[in-house]
Design brief:
alpha+beta; BirA Bifunctional Protein, domain 2; 2 domains; 7-stranded mixed beta sheet; 5 helices
Length: 239
């Protein structure tokens, strides 16, 4: 949904600001997956690289699930080198989800976060997927983002689109907003849990993940879901 001209405009705008994302913007008109393309160059690409496309054919979500990208979708991936300990992968997930949540709340005030990384209004409007390279630290993280900006949801139960809630939805402004929010979150990782909990609609609901069934009671500082079960409080981590 992003055009080549908008990609050029983004490069110019990023050069003027203090974002963790610089002017290394890659654009392809059509691509199977921005996530897979950026993963292929993640070892050598500079931190802050952004891969944009107008049309994506084979997007994927968490755990390899298919992410459909019909006309009206915004899809892109970004690379960062956070140099954080491996146990803080969940913190990155929370930061990514909060960044997207903060932007979309401006278009749809009823937006919430469904643990761990889905953004909901009346249905799913957006999602985040994160792939990492880990040794003694998180060497890099590739964050893939998909947003239903103005898609046709008539035959897609459970799916929503931002244009159902506002006439002012702009893929470019959502992209720019996410990059700004992610830059701010990156500088304030220690406070991200509070922001995530404030937007999370999973807390207070009955949930079922694997053999864990019970009431979701909270999110810990590493992004794990705390569930009250018959066995006591159990911790569900991001898979």
């Amino acid at each position: 949904m992003i055009s080549r001209e908008q990609a050029r405009q983004l490069r110019t705008e990023l050069q003027k600001c203090t974002s963790i994302f610089r002017s290394n913007v890659i654009f392809t008109d059509t691509i199977p997956s921005t996530q897979d393309a950026l993963l292929d160059i993640a070892d050598s690409a500079p931190s802050g690289t952004i891969w944009l496309t107008h049309s994506q054919q084979a997007g994927r979500g968490r755990n390899g699930r298919v992410w459909l990208s019909p006309p009206g979708s915004l899809t892109f991936s970004v690379l960062i080198r956070p140099h954080m300990p491996p146990y803080r992968v969940g913190t990155l997930m929370m930061a990514s989800a909060v960044s997207l949540y903060n932007v979309l709340c401006k278009y749809a005030p009823d937006t919430t976060i469904k643990w761990p990384n889905d953004i909901m209004v009346k249905g799913k409007v957006a999602g985040v997927v994160i792939d990492t390279a880990i040794s003694d630290i998180i060497q890099w993280a590739v964050i893939g983002v998909g947003v239903n900006v103005s898609i046709d949801t008539s035959n897609m139960p459970g799916i929503d689109t931002i244009s159902n809630h506002t006439k002012d939805a702009s893929a470019y402004e959502i992209l720019l907003g996410f990059l700004g929010e992610m830059s701010r979150c990156h500088k304030n990782m220690d406070s991200i849990q509070e922001s995530y909990v404030g937007g999370c609609s999973t807390i207070g609901r009955m949930v079922h993940y694997g053999d864990v069934r019970g009431l979701a009671t909270g999110i810990d500082k590493y992004g794990a879901l705390m569930v009250q079960t018959k066995r006591g409080t159990e911790r569900v981590v991001i898979s």
